Amino acid sequence: MMELVRTRYSTIKIDDDSKVISDNWEKIQFDQIDLKRFKHLVDIENFDIIIFPLKKKFALKQDVDFEIFPRGEGSDSGDKFSDFLKNSSDLLRLQGNKILSIFFYDDDFKEKVFFTSRLEIYVKEPTDFVELFLGKNAFSCINSIDFKLFPFSHLKYFSFEDSNGSFSIQKRFFNLDKDAKLDFGRIWSGNSIFFSFDNFLLEGYGASCSVFDVIFGRQKKSLEINSRIDHIGEKTSGYLSARAVMYDSAVLNYVGGAKVWPKSFNSDSYVELKGIKMSDSARIYFVPLMEIDTSLVKAKHSSSIGKVGENELFYMMSRGLDENEAREIIVEGFVREVVSKMNIPDLISPTFPFLYQKL
Prior knowledge:
Layout lengths: L1 E5 L4 E4 L4 E3 L4 E3 L20 E4 L4 E4 L4 E5 L10 H9 L2 E5 L2 E6 L9 E11 L3 E7 L6 E10 L4 E8 L2 E13 L4 E8 L2 E12 L5 E10 L4 E10 L5 E10 L4 E10 L6 E11 L5 E10 L4 E10 L3 H8 L5 H17 L20
Parallel strand pairs: 3-10, 4-6, 5-9, 8-10, 9-11, 10-12, 11-13, 12-14, 13-15, 14-16, 15-17, 16-18, 17-19, 18-20, 19-21, 20-22, 21-23
Antiparallel strand pairs: 1-2, 5-6, 7-8
């Protein structure tokens, strides 16, 4: 077993005999892609870039700036995770206003296979980025994506996961310049093993980000999420809110935090983590972190984990609902509070934001 990265709760290991898929990025035409199966989720025609990270393919509808850089040779930054990606995958750099990234695999691999990919997105104008993890067939992938938000830019990022039996490690880095704005929304509902590392760097004056997570775990789903907001510039604003609902024997480890650096005067930081356990075997571990290095700041954090309240159940069942129906209505209201705050791009189908159940 090769150790890839050690986290707060676990050590991520990859078998030494695993095959790493590291083919070069290939540019294809839009008419070469069959996207009928995704039409009920997204308005395909409105995207100008579509990326298939597992297939290492991307399509451009119109003239879009892009560059491909070969994978690194012998790089050693001290970060095993980053070095593994640099040495295993080339880098695709894109600049576009409407981007769709689809993690979907329809082939069965009997051998141990890991797909790797690296993306870098330049955001200079209002940009929509939609990311989908889908499919009945299991796949294993390691992916990194860097977003560079230029001054006064605005990025709407939305991610949805409904994959089956996948093992996925995702590393995302957002760098926000002066008065840049990020709206980050994510709904995860599949049955997979996910590790996610998300860093939001508010470097420029007045930069702001809103991070909303809705997470469902069923069966033996296992998730580890590390989200951190760094306030570096003055008068920055960071808001992190997560809702988790764990069924069966699903497990979630969620570390959500913020750091306010010494010169980030008059900044506003908020971290809120809430979870519901739907069974005695389900596990939710929240770690809200707040590190403050200046006195001129507004900051607060909170977390809570509980079960569906007996009083609420009794009230709803007295109105004619059975217990399961009552529980699901309570859960829907619990997550809808956060979903309603997500700045979801108009490219998403109208019914999509409320898919907290299986597709």
